[in-house]
Write a structure and sequence with these properties.
Radius of gyration: 28 Å
Number of strands: 36
Strand order of the largest sheet: 5-4-16-15-14-6-7
Distance between the termini: 61 Å
Shape: globular
Structural class: alpha/beta
Helix content: 10-25%
């Protein structure tokens, strides 16, 4: 690479002054006009939140959001109801993006590997020579590596770069990609197509290794349409799931089979034969064959309303077989051409880039927004090969593992700091607008790519507008303002493609014998990109409830056979590579197999994520990046602790009482259960709603998919602190809302469900009479309040609460005793100014978002109108609309009808606490031929 020239005295002073100016102006509004959602205020009112429609990406795909800012500070993310990718809801990743924005470990300056801190001018000078040589060679030796790109503007820029330098190459590496699905479509239809299933029209669904209700860019859309259909008993349908280990989709299944991943092909072949495929008779275990026969019968009966989904970890041939089955079933699936192509140039993969690096054919490599050194399959040895590039530059939010290997690292602006555009899974385009100037001097991907192309310096705002100039017509400014206001480009969804008849593929050879491990997306860290996000590290995984780490999930039978116990540290080996991971014994795991989530074990994630958990990427291979066969397990003789927020406890005979479940056939005979008001009591009759409102909440456990969006939304809205792994190990946590997991089945036949538990806001609250200073009191609207400045920390209220929803500040987590970097000044900028930050020694709990109730009341008084509906943070976030909040004093409020629903019940109503938070029972449609849920 060209030598780095030390800055002159004049340049050094210029860098210093520029840094000071950037720091002082970072939290000011961008210079371009931003269009607030709904109404453009005449002037900025201090302390009054403003909403801006924008989009956040996950794996390259857009989820439309409303970013809420107060006094120029973004503080909260909520869903955009107009956007097809979010439908007004969020997921944990969108909610936690606000914390990533303020992360003090983000890259703050341009750095050079040897000499350290540099400047943008210096990297431009360093780039000049290799780029000039690449242009002379028509791009030969120039390589661009990105994650999945759906941004029309970025694709336009890449296409222009490749047109100017036709011998250059663009590569894409997305750790959790859909390459197997695309290749499967090519085998089935002769061309690569992307499938978009519609669970709203599919009443019988079979998932084989697929977890559509689990983490991913399509979780919100799929979950919403799936649960909306199931609210109609006539269209409830039946969900079958065959999987290696228990997932969120598996928990919601009506029939489930713990299936070794090596048997997935045989199960699909059995189903295809039932539809006339005439494949060789598969060899399936007895229980799996019984499950396949029952699923096949239901799917055939629901032709036109039946759907089969195949997991991304399975090979392309099985995806092709899934396409053939869906074709036979006339499944409600829309096919579209891939949108992530630059003009007529489809991207190459990471393996071809690694081969070029090995051959010494790469003279200049630019890596934009991805981390291949950490996430590449281990057999590529990408870190070693990357060192063979003549010149390498990496742009990213953090100085991560890839930044430590390349010659240069450039700070990338966060999506809440930059102009861009993105497409949703259905192709709908959204504009991305910034809420603040880059906090740490980063530049957007568009500006960096413009730099690599040698174009004159252009602001991202102008680059994005140039993409859509022809769309706006004569009144482009009006069109542009409306697109910003709505958060999406009208009529921009991808056109459906007729794929033709599917071909029956040749099935792959059976996988290698021995123990198998499935590498999965982590429900909290996804592929590891959120490893330095403390909210997500401390967010319990939906099934295992593990925090601050991952573990190899084994069945009880498998663990016993190998002489292992939960907490044992085992050596997991494959092809001469080895990692060490803790063992977690879980229900619903197939014998002979295990599951490990990705994203952990990172050495350069930041102060929060460094060294947490085991790195599954070190075992992945190019041929099988997600499904490992022939894995060895060995004892190390060491033990560790699997940190959980909910321990496995057997409650003899109590599960069915605490978590009400019923079959669909029982629904006509079911009766609504009250809140215990008919129980005898010595207390005075309830008269606590004297102020004209009676707030209450109903949670539909049938609709809850355990995604934890509500948990992180509550944390973001209410300034809930992070306590760290040491405090978790002591049994302490601060979440105001938890999602409990109940299982009334057996380790082999799971019958589980999710139950979100906020404060019950009891009318006869046990916490109130025991408080010696009246810190726990009721107001005139039925809310159980906690007066912070009265609380003296006796914790009597916590001891007397049967629901265990109160949280105590053992330390000043937000006042001088934060965990790790959570006390940084940048983190404080995220805090909601309408919610008090609690001090050490104070009890806290769910308030039903009383600040939102107060805001709605003030707006109604200002406008001289009746008070309208109020949405709590958890309700707004929920992808499946499982949470309903309302006013029992309003005759027309939907919550009154929900309390009369035949599935209605209260948690522990026999205690006569008369909770305002109540539930609807979990509902399933088990197949009688399988003897109930399996």
């Amino acid at each position: 690479m060209p030598p780095l020239t030390a800055p002159s005295r004049r340049e050094a002073l210029g860098l210093l002054s520029a840094g000071l100016a950037a720091g002082l102006g970072a939290c000011s509004k961008p210079s371009e006009e931003l269009v607030p959602y709904v109404v453009q205020p005449e002037r900025l009112l201090p302390g009054v939140p403003e909403r801006y429609a924008t989009a956040l990406s996950l794996g390259g795909w857009a989820r439309g959001v409303h970013a809420i800012a107060v006094d120029g500070r973004p503080i909260k993310i909520e869903g955009n109801p107009l956007h097809p990718g979010s439908l007004g809801a969020t997921d944990v990743f969108a909610e936690a993006a606000i914390l990533d924005l303020y992360d003090p470990d983000r890259a703050r300056t341009v750095t050079e590997r040897v000499n350290g801190i540099a400047s943008w001018d210096m990297v431009e000078r360093a780039l000049a020579a290799p780029l000039a040589e690449a242009r002379r060679q028509k791009g030969r030796g120039l390589r661009l590596l990105t994650g999945r790109v759906t941004s029309p503007t970025l694709l336009r820029q890449i296409a222009a770069l490749l047109q100017a330098m036709p011998d250059a190459a663009w590569h894409v590496h997305e750790p959790l990609d859909d390459a197997a699905s695309l290749r499967g479509a090519e085998l089935a239809f002769g061309r690569r197509l992307r499938a978009l299933p519609d669970p709203g029209r599919a009443e019988t669904i079979l998932c084989v290794g697929a977890d559509p209700l689990g983490p991913g860019p399509d979780q919100i859309r799929f979950g919403r349409t799936f649960m909306d259909r199931r609210r109609d008993p006539a269209r409830f349908g039946r969900l079958y799931v065959a999987e290696t280990a228990l997932t969120q989709t598996g928990i919601k299944a009506d029939a489930r089979c713990a299936l070794h991943p090596g048997d997935a092909g045989a199960l699909l072949a059995a189903l295809a034969n039932a539809l006339g495929a005439a494949l060789p008779a598969p060899d399936l275990p007895q229980e799996a064959a019984r499950f396949a026969a029952a699923a096949a019968a239901d799917l055939r009966e629901a032709e036109g309303r039946a759907l089969v989904l195949v997991g991304d970890a399975l090979p392309p041939e099985l995806h092709a077989l899934g396409h053939w089955i869906n074709d036979r079933l006339k499944a409600p699936v829309t096919y579209t051409a891939p949108l992530d192509v630059a003009g007529d140039r489809a991207p190459a993969d990471l393996a071809s880039l690694a081969a070029d690096l090995e051959a010494g054919a790469v003279t200049c490599l630019a890596i934009l927004g991805c981390n291949p050194v950490q996430t590449a399959p281990a057999d590529l040895s990408f870190a070693d090969r990357l060192g063979r590039a003549g010149f390498s530059v990496h742009a990213g939010l953090h100085g991560d593992e890839t930044a430590g290997v390349t010659h240069w690292h450039l700070p990338l602006a966060h999506e809440l700091e930059s102009w861009s555009d993105l497409r949703a899974r259905d192709g709908t385009a959204s504009l991305v607008q910034p809420l603040v100037r880059p906090l740490y001097g980063g530049r957007s991907a568009h500006e960096i790519l413009s730099l690599l192309a040698g174009a004159p310096a252009t602001a991202g705002y102008d680059i994005v507008r140039a993409t859509w100039r022809d769309q706006g017509g004569a009144d482009f400014e009006g069109w542009w303002r409306k697109a910003l206001h709505d958060g999406l480009i009208p009529d921009s969804a991808a056109a459906p493609v007729d794929p033709g008849a599917a071909r029956l593929p040749t099935l792959p050879a059976p996988p290698a014998e021995g123990f198998a491990v499935e590498l999965r997306a982590d429900p909290c860290l996804y592929d590891g990109r959120y490893a330095n996000n403390a909210w997500l590290q401390e967010c319990p995984k939906p099934v295992s409830k593990q925090v601050w780490g991952n573990a190899l999930a084994l069945s009880q039978a498998e663990a016993t056979r190998r002489g292992l116990e939960a907490g044992d540290l085992v050596a997991v080996g494959l092809n001469g590579r080895q990692i060490e991971a803790l063992v977690a014994v879980e229900s619903g795991v197939a014998d002979g197999a295990g599951a490990l989530t990705l994203g952990y074990g990172r050495p350069r994630a930041g102060a929060i994520g460094n060294g947490v958990g085991a790195d599954g990427y070190r075992l992945a291979t190019t041929a099988a990046p997600r499904l490992l066969a022939g894995v060895s397990l060995g004892k190390t003789g060491h033990r560790g602790e699997v940190l959980r927020t909910q321990n496995y406890t057997q409650i003899e005979g109590e599960t069915k009482k605490l978590f009400r479940q019923m079959a669909l056939a029982e629904l006509p005979r079911a009766e609504s259960k009250g809140i215990g008001a008919d129980q005898p009591t010595l207390l005075n009759p309830w008269q606590g709603d004297a102020d004209g409102h009676a707030w209450a909440m109903v949670i539909d456990t049938q609709a809850c998919i355990g995604c934890n969006a509500c948990v992180v939304a509550c944390q973001s809205e209410n300034n809930v602190p992070v306590v760290g792994p040491e405090e978790i190990a002591r049994g302490r946590i601060m979440h105001w809302l938890r999602v409990d997991l109940y299982d009334s089945g057996t380790p082999e036949a799971v019958n589980a469900g999710f139950q979100p538990v906020p404060c019950m806001h009891c009318e006869h609250a046990p916490c109130e009479p025991v408080c010696p200073v009246a810190a726990s009191v009721h107001d005139g609207e039925g809310l159980n309040l906690q007066v912070y400045n009265r609380c003296v920390g006796t914790r009597f209220c916590e001891a007397n609460c049967p629901y265990k929803v109160r949280r105590f500040n053992f330390f000043g987590y937000a006042d001088g005793q934060p965990y790790a970097t959570m006390g940084a000044e940048s983190i404080k900028a995220q805090h909601n100014p309408n919610v008090t930050v609690r001090a050490r020694g104070v009890m806290e709990k769910c308030t039903y978002c009383i600040q939102r109730i107060a805001n709605a009341r003030q707006e109604a008084e200002r406008d001289d109108r009746p008070m309208g509906p109020v949405a709590t943070a958890c309700q707004s976030a929920c992808p499946t609309r499982a949470i309903t909040f309302g006013d029992l004093a309003r005759p027309d409020d939907p919550i009154r009808a929900l309390r009369q629903d035949p599935r209605h019940y209260a948690l522990m109503e026999e205690l006569n606490t008369r909770p305002r938070t109540t539930y609807l029972a979990d509902l399933h449609a088990p197949n009688p031929d399988l003897g109930g849920r399996t």
